[in-house]
Specification:
Helices cover 73% and strands 0% of the residues. The protein is mainly alpha-helical.
């Protein structure tokens, strides 16, 4: 398809804007690694939260959602909708604890919480493991999505040479901008990128639905194509399909959300918590992220995926006569190319580029923060100048960019890469929760959980009986890794009392699970801190777990209300909307409104 001069002007204009912003922030980012990685801890909640949303609004996401809907209908989205539970857990239980810790990366937390050589080893290992392979796998599927869009848009030959050139071109733009601007440039452009991506996805959804005659016609055509008994529009799986449908849904809601890495908000989400002005801004940022992430973004993508299933019958069939339609994710960019007029096509392509950059620049900056703060500075050069660390940070950004580009060349399925990464980290989540609330967790708990999850996930991913069944793999990985890390925890010595006392007095995670340490503090006048008895002053009157439950109800009811109303199921939609209003009012009333004195 030919791209008009107007479309090109929009695309090039955005690229120049992003590069100009990178140059503008380069001096501020070059002061020190606090500015380069966490913007001097001065972000307001709306900026930090929107940056979280923009980062997760990657170019791969609408394509992966299309792949899920084509494969399993709307209910296929429970693969990621289940994470509402962990997202609200991070909001009400962990966001303020992370901000209270006053660290630069969540990997640094290991030596704040644990002691001895095992803590040092864990910090260095996690810095390398997450900063390079895990980070680059994530970036790889984002690059893969952008590559697919570019190949389809410009009608390029889908061969190895083309893939390499497309990957280099995309990464060059994001890499230069991120290397110059640091975290300030990342979060400022995230605002623009999120706005453009939302406008683009909503515009495409409106045009796609109107082109086939509206929602009513869409539902009729789905019935005509897939039969009157299809379950594509169901919000829950078709349990009549057999016990595996029940087991898979049970794994999503009963296991995946708490068992996987990041349940306490680690990663680039924690990075924005560290960068927030104070604890309340950290909580509000995380809350806004979860609301926008799950309630505002999904339905434009889902509507486009449903239209694609009607417009391109048989999409996702490996034997489809049109090679482009063998890939279920291709429905999204193909509709964009077939339906959008001049100008709007340029806007949509720019929105995709913006979504790509918002994710890639975050992962480059975040990954480099691990390699610099938790590996290079911690183990090789702890006393260098601030300028030296910024220069090394920029070199690591380039290194990560190159490795991620190579990784993307070996990927084929976006949703498949999602599932592989989740399985690779299954069983780690429970350790990440308990390390805040149980004094007995030690560094060996985390090490053994990571190693066990890695080994077991690789075995079940290649074994013929389990490699194609995500739920079955999770049912093997999680119990195995959990048993191993619990066994190792009780087999090894606890963290030193001095380290536990220092951690508790810095973070104040609560009394339950820490009673032996609280007792030691109260018995020793040297360790007594008056804030120990004032912890409740800085929390909501409602227990955090009740706020979590109510928050989950609010997000799910809002998500379902929007979906039901958009699809024409008005009665059900209004019921969900009423639940959303009530739970939202309760949540607003219960939000903590007091700050710690040191913030």
């Amino acid at each position: 398809m030919n791209i008009s001069l107007i479309d090109w002007a929009i695309i090039v204009g955005y690229i120049l804007f992003a590069l100009g912003l990178g140059i503008y922030f380069s001096k501020r980012a070059g002061k020190n690694i606090d500015e380069f990685f966490i913007s001097g801890r001065n972000l307001p909640w709306w900026l930090a939260g929107t940056s979280m949303v923009a980062t997760t609004f990657a170019v791969d996401t609408p394509l992966a959602v299309t792949e899920l809907v084509v494969g399993d209908g709307i209910a296929g989205n429970w693969f990621w909708w289940n994470a509402v539970l962990s997202g609200m857990l991070a909001t009400f239980l962990f966001s303020r604890l992370w901000r209270r810790s006053e660290i630069i990366t969540d990997v640094e937390f290991t030596e704040l919480r644990y002691s001895g050589p095992s803590a040092s080893f864990l910090r260095g290992f996690r810095a390398l493991y997450i900063g390079l392979p895990i980070n680059c796998i994530t970036m790889g599927w984002v690059i893969l999505a952008m590559q697919k869009i570019v190949v389809l848009t410009f009608d390029l030959q889908d061969d190895a040479t083309t893939k390499i050139l497309v990957v280099l071109g995309c990464l060059l733009i994001a890499g230069i901008y991120c290397t110059l601007s640091g975290f300030w440039g990342v979060v400022i452009t995230d605002i623009v990128q999120f706005g453009m991506a939302m406008i683009g996805s909503i515009t495409l959804a409106i045009i796609a639905v109107s082109k086939i005659g509206g929602i009513g016609a869409l539902k009729e055509k789905l019935t005509g194509t897939y039969g009157a008994d299809h379950t594509i529009l169901n919000f829950t799986p078709d349990f009549s399909a057999g016990k595996m449908a029940i087991i898979t849904f049970g794994v999503y809601l009963g296991m995946q959300w708490w068992a996987s890495n990041g349940v306490d908000g680690t990663g680039y989400t924690a990075q924005r918590m560290f960068a927030a002005k104070n604890e309340r801004h950290s909580l509000l940022a995380t809350l806004w992220f979860n609301i926008a992430h799950y309630t505002l973004r999904p339905w434009p993508w889902i509507l486009v995926a449903l239209v694609a299933m009607v417009v391109y019958p048989g999409i996702g069939d490996p034997g489809h006569t049109n090679p482009e339609l063998q890939d279920p994710a291709a429905g999204y960019p193909l509709l964009m190319l077939d339906y959008l007029p001049v100008g709007l096509l340029g806007l949509m392509l720019t929105a995709f580029l913006a979504a790509f950059m918002s994710t890639i620049d975050t992962h480059l900056n975040w990954g480099a923060s691990y390699l610099v703060n938790d590996f290079y500075k911690r183990f090789f050069k702890p006393e260098a100048s601030p300028g030296h660390y910024v220069a090394i940070s920029r070199l690591f950004v380039i290194l990560i960019m190159l490795i991620a580009g190579v990784t993307s060349l070996f990927m084929n399925s976006i949703a498949g890469a999602w599932k592989f990464l989740i399985a690779l980290n299954a069983g780690i989540g429970l350790v990440q929760i308990l390390r805040w609330y149980w004094w007995r967790i030690n560094a060996w708990s985390e090490i053994s959980a990571m190693v066990a999850a890695l080994i077991v996930s690789i075995v079940v991913s290649v074994h013929p009986a389990t490699k194609d069944d995500f739920a079955l793999r999770m049912l093997i990985i999680v119990p195995s890794s959990t048993y191993i890390w619990l066994f190792v925890t009780f087999l090894t010595n606890p963290v030193s009392k001095e380290k536990l006392i220092a951690f508790y007095q810095r973070v104040y995670p609560g009394v339950k699970g820490w009673k032996p340490i609280v007792k030691l503090i109260k018995e020793d006048p040297i360790n007594v801190d008056t804030k120990l008895t004032q912890t409740n002053e800085f929390t909501s009157d409602t227990p955090a777990l009740l706020n979590w439950i109510n928050g989950v109800i609010f997000v799910y009811s809002t998500l379902f209300a929007f979906g039901k109303l958009l699809l024409g199921f008005t009665g059900t939609g209004l019921i969900f909307l009423l639940i959303a209003i009530i739970s939202g009012a309760i949540m607003y009333y219960n939000l903590p409104r007091k700050e710690r004195n040191n913030n």
